[in-house]
Amino acid sequence: MLDDNNKASATTADIQALDAEHHLHPFTNTGALNKKGARVITKGEGVYLWDSEGNKIIDGMAGLWCVNMGYGRKELVEAANTQMNQLAYYNTFFQTTHTPVAELAREIASVTPGDLNHIFFANSGSEAIDTIIRLVRQYWAIKGKPYRNILISRENAYHGSTVGGTSLGGMSGMHKQGAPLVPNIERIRQPYWYGEAGDMSEEEFGIACAKALEEKILEVGPDNVAAFVGEPIQGAGGVIVPPANYWAEIQKICQKYDILLAADEVICGFGRTGSWFGSETLGITPDIISMAKGLSSGYLPIAAVAVGDRISNALIEHDDDFNHGYTYSGHPVSAAVAIANIRLMKEENIVDYVANDIGPYFQQKLRDTLGEHPLVGHIEGVGLVAGIALVKDKATKELFPDDLDIGMICRDHCFNNGLIMRAVGSRMVLSPPLVISRDEVDELIEKARLCFDLTLKSVS
Ligand code: PMP
């Protein structure tokens, strides 16, 4: 509960103690967190959050890359409220449908690129990825080639944390836990030019990384491969923008061996890169995409997989059930919020704003303000997503020792200075709400500069 000054009426310590008593946090060392107490977030408005001590924080991460239209949007609240009153729940398993799910499928199809016009619903990015795994394998089974069941993804990719998502992803820290993984998943190197290219030019490296796909296909046998899956821009891996020629080469290789191309748009979708989907920004023509997060601006859990004609025709013409789905696939309230969110995005021309106004402004300002900072080795990003490599030595790209955990030091300074910026190893990442104004971008980046200065002091 909040009092008039926006402070929790239970004290922060009370809530922290309650949280420590019963709550196991995701991706967290809960024991360590319990000792220091979690920060209690109480309110959001626009690009700002408030905590239970009354501190105002600028959210450079849009929650977890999802609150694209900003906090406190009454239109989305209203859509949920109206739908809750009308029909709070019904499923779409057994020969039934409802207006929100049918309308949302059309709304999504109106913004997806190419022929990605058929939509399967899920509740999270991870579930959407599991859907992709099952769907591409089922596609080939329908085509009489059930042996085409290998999926190829990349090291340091993030595709969620269900068993399927963990297996498809390339996060070694996740692979070590909860094994064994799902079989018949192969991985190739990531296209991280700044960190892994050695002396190669961006162009040479783009070709080399795409060639790695062809080598892998030949190694496992082209007729055993179902699909290649990749994030247009890797997000949770540290915001890694591939070389400009990379995706065109990947696309050619997929075509050459008749392999389905899947783009995981969970972060890049819904305007983040200045197009409705990252595939458009990066020049990819995928057969299938996953989406979540920005679909409802994070207001309610909802995710989807959009498939092109090749897959939808196979499924629709195949005279059998697709035995897959979730109780809350296309949940009417989540769907109503997602419809309102997409309409709001259209009304406010938000994708154009990211592409032609705030995105370029943000990218330029980042480089102007932080490019010369002694800690900053490299800045990459498109639209309103960016990754900043922290280095010990700009000239040699030497990194700080792992056990120093420079990213965490920087993240903690941000945390203590009213800015949410995330650390991925030694990379700092930003993904603010798309509705951020120029003044707010200035504030965010000035705060980042202060925190980089404090970080430098901490390690000098
Ligand atoms: N794919 C990508 C590219 C993601 O970034 C994420 C989440 N960060 C997921 C899948 C998983 O989504 P969720 O956490 O909603 O399951």
Automatic annotation (TrEMBL):
Gene3D superfamilies: Aspartate Aminotransferase, domain 1 (3.90.1150.10), Type I PLP-dependent aspartate aminotransferase-like (Major domain) (3.40.640.10). Its cofactor is pyridoxal 5'-phosphate. Keywords: Aminotransferase, Pyridoxal phosphate, Transferase. The keyword RNA-binding does not apply. One of its GO terms (molecular function) is pyridoxal phosphate binding. The keyword Transferase applies. PROSITE patterns: AA_TRANSFER_CLASS_3 (PS00600). GO terms for cellular component: cytosol. InterPro entries: Aminotrans_3 (IPR005814), Aminotrans_3_PPA_site (IPR049704), PyrdxlP-dep_Trfase (IPR015424), PyrdxlP-dep_Trfase_major (IPR015421), PyrdxlP-dep_Trfase_small (IPR015422). Pfam families: Aminotran_3. Belongs to the class-III pyridoxal-phosphate-dependent aminotransferase family. This is Aspartate aminotransferase family protein. The lineage of its organism: Bacteria, Pseudomonadati, Pseudomonadota, Gammaproteobacteria, Oceanospirillales.
